[in-house]
Amino acid sequence: MQQQFNPKNENILVSINGKLVPRHEAKVSVFDSSVQGGDAVWEGLRVYHGRIFCLDEHLTRLHESAHAMMFTGIPGKEEIKQAIFETLQANGMRDETHIRLTLTRGEKITSGMDPRLNQKGCTLIVLAEWKKPLYGDKGVTLITSSVRRNSPMNIDSKIHHNNLINNILAKIEANIAGADDALMLDVHGFVSETNACNIFMIKEGKLITPHADACLPGITRRKVLELAGSMNIPTIEKNISLTEMYNAETVFTTGTMGELTPVDGIDGRRIMNSTVSGIFSRIQQGFNLLTKTAGEKLPF
Ligand SMILES: Cc1ncc(COP(=O)(O)O)c(C=O)c1O
Fold first, then answer.
1. What is the domain class of 7-130 according to CATH?
2. 256 lines ligand 1 (CB under 6 A)
3. Are strands 296-297 and 51-52 parallel, antiparallel or unpaired?
4. What's this model's pTM, rounded to 2 decimal places?
5. Could you tell me the fold of the domain covering 140-293?
């Protein structure tokens, strides 16, 4: 699944520290921490039907990531919301939009790793693009990557940081294998998530997902668990082996970029994606309804 350039995004305006600039002038300094060390945190958000889905949850995760990274001069939620609203309004975006929200440690006084070199506060980037859910209605294929997902022993996945090399190396393996994405295991060999999404399986009427120990605690993941709970579908968070995944009735991924996407195959094993239980379609319908009602309304 390769994204293509959308000509509608040719002339978009991007907000950098509250200033709106055309796409081709939207740049950060070579002294910015994101350039120097991937030293930044980010969120991906979606705009549906004039609403930003789960805006508050995303801003809380951004703040918690920035706090864990000990950024200084972190902009408040209201300031970030204003920057997002201004960007969307300037681009006339009320639907079918994806926002890449990035907060870096900011510009350094000289190149180097030490956060004490950051004396100007954070850099806030709001990049909103016209972008439909990535995977469309089709299912995806996965291969298992040889790259293990970060554990809390090295980089805690609960920090949603820009140091994406772990995921990118896995994605390269998927590209070379001709698969859509890579399934990543944790250090113990249990399924963690894909290089870009959380993962679920359905078996014998139960919705099962890995513990959020070595994966991002995704906001879509949480919504899916809540929806299942409200539908009295039993949910289990547990260690899952590859063999269990291969033999699931249904496997699907979750994430803001691709919403809920069925997985058709893993490592050449076909996933049945049985519709008998109806669990996947009920949750997907519930999620689609939520995107129409549960977001923060745009003030314009
Ligand atoms: C590695 C990874 N897993 C899962 C997700 C899905 O998270 P969310 O549902 O909050 O978009 C993302 C999204 O950025 C991600 O980067």
1. alpha beta
2. yes
3. antiparallel
4. 0.96
5. D-amino Acid Aminotransferase; Chain A, domain 2 (3.20.10)
